[in-house]
Amino acid sequence: MDIETYYDKIYRYIYYRVHDRSIAEDLTQEAFLRFLGSSGNEPERYLYTIAKNLCIDEYRRIKPVSLDSEEVPDLPDNSADSLVKSLEVRQALEKLSEEDRELLILRYANDEPIKEISRLTGISRFAVYRRLKEAKSRLTKALGKETI
Amino acid sequence: MRDQDIRELLQSSAGTPDAKSKDRFLREIRKRQDTNRMSFIRILLIQFRYIRKRVWLASLLILILSLTVTIDLSFDRLTAVSDLMPFLAGLGMLEALRADMHGMKELESVTLISAKGALFAKTALIGASHLITMLVSSIFLFPSAASDITTVAAMLLIPYTVTSILCMEVERTRFGRENGYCCLVIAFLVFGTFRMMLHSNISAGTAPGTLMLIMAALIVLEIYELKKTMRSEEYAWN
């Protein structure tokens, strides 16, 4: 498994859960350190599981930040456009179910093929395809509603 | 919304991780992985394939020559084996420091195991094979030789260690690095000197205790020279 390729994927996967760049980076590195200390038959799946568990631990540790508050989330780019766009995406994703969010991040943010998503999530390829289609339409709807 | 639009939107709003931090982390991880992956046995096996056949053949020749002594008992065979020792050492050093000679040192330095690791592995392999050769030769030569075991060991070990010490000394100089075959010149010089000493009987009658002391001193010096050579590889690398 190419660590360099997966570094960005795991970073994005975590970023969409914690919405903080520095925390996402720390958790990404932590995920890899834990991953390298172990051995398994399905490394990608195991890596994503570690990342997910680290995010859950992080949720428990910190107080969730409300989007209605004055606090501006930590974003990769500080330009006004990207700030607005990121907020829109974040708000739209938060309206979706956990499963929809996971599928969309894996498929579109991380470019994982359907076959790989099926392996990672443990659901059939057909189910992945169908649920992705539904998730996509829900995201489009959410983005349409939330457009500033 | 098209798939491509969603892809761009999700990828761009997450951004990319900090390049410096990522690079630092990946380098650290790779270093750990490489260290775990490259066991000493694996380094030895890799280097074993790069050592040319002539080095092993030279050791084999010495062994065959020693073995024939048991058939044809004669003291001259011990001298013959002893005469070959400087060349065995010279050939070994030439092989161990081959990267320098062919201007491949820089390339070797950037490999996974580093130049120091490669040199250490090569020296260990060649040194071990030579040690075995000398031990087996001593066992074969001792019953036929007119002298005691210390003299037999000294006749094999002294020319070998003197040659390798001198080779390492010379190889650390610029001239030595540029002229790798000077190892063989040193071997000839050592061979000539020892021949002269044998003919003029300078060494005759040397007490076994003195010979043991000389051998011990040469072994210590050889270890010191090896350490110095390894350190010079490390300095070059850093």
Shape of chain A: globular
State the domain count of chain B. Answer: 1
Helix content of chain B: over 70%
**Poorly predicted ranges of chain A (pLDDT <50, ≥5 residues)?**
none
N-to-C SSE string of chain B, H for helix and E for strand? HHHHHHHHHHHH
Strand-residue fraction of chain A?
Answer: under 5%
Number of domains of chain A: 2
Helix segment count of chain B? 12
Total strands of chain B: 0
What are the segments of chain B in which pLDDT stays under 50 over at least 5 consecutive residues? none
Structural class of chain A: mainly alpha
Count of helical segments of chain A? 7
User: Approximately how much helix is present in the residues of chain A?
Assistant: over 70%
Write down the secondary-structure element order of chain A.
HHHHHHH
Mean pLDDT of chain A: 81
Give the quaternary arrangement of the chains. Answer: heterodimer
Map the helices and strands.
The complex is a heterodimer of chains A (148) and B (238).
Chain A: H1 3-18, H2 21-36, H3 43-61, H4 80-95, H5 98-109, H6 114-121, H7 125-146
Chain B: H1 3-14, H2 19-37, H3 40-50, H4 53-71, H5 75-96, H6 98-101, H7 105-109, H8 114-141, H9 149-171, H10 174-178, H11 182-199, H12 208-237
Helix pairs in contact in B: 3-8, 4-5, 4-8, 5-8, 5-9, 5-11, 8-9, 8-12, 9-11, 9-12
Overview of the structural elements:
The complex is a heterodimer of chains A (148) and B (238). Chain A has 148 residues and is mainly alpha-helical. Chain A folds into two domains: 1-73; 75-148, Up-down Bundle (Butyryl-CoA Dehydrogenase, subunit A, domain 3), CATH 1.20.140. Chain A has helices spanning 3-18, 21-36, 43-61, 80-95, 98-109, 114-121, 125-146. Chain B has helices at residues 3-14, 19-37, 40-50, 53-71, 75-96, 98-101, 105-109, 114-141, 149-171, 174-178, 182-199, 208-237. In chain B, helix 5 (75-96) packs antiparallel against helix 11 (182-199). Chain B is built from twelve helices and no strands. The interface between A and B is medium-sized, with 33 and 22 residues.
